[in-house]
Amino acid sequence: MPYRTEIKVRGYHLDLYGHVNNARYLEFLEEARWNMMELHGDLEWFMQRRYALVVSRIDIRYKRPATMGDLLVVETRSGEMGERHVIVEQKIVRADNGKVVAEAEVTVAVVHPETPGALPMQGEIAERFAQLVREH
Fold first, then answer.
1. Which of 17, 72, 104, 114 has the lowest tally of Cβ within 10 angstroms?
2. Using an 8 Å Cβ cutoff, are 68 and 16 in contact?
């Protein structure tokens, strides 16, 4: 079961056509990823070690518009793990009817200020992401 984050569409989210601006969906997705890490307790663990989670790629597919007052649910789960990244799978759905508004696969890497490049997904880092899959 995915982590769920609710977001209500406000006027400042909208474009000139009255739809959520495409760039705002990226903010909704980011809010949900932060929420997932905070709820699981991993955010503090990463911060204590000076690890940063960085997005290196987002593949987003817009399905239908969201408009003023819509209550959206962002479903977030940790997915496939690569050598130096993890794919976070996210879906934005309307709370009232369950229709998919957007889907995304977000590639996330872990970096440290004293180490060049992405850290390997092994040891405790890999275990933290694996727990996200097991628990939901």
1. 114
2. no
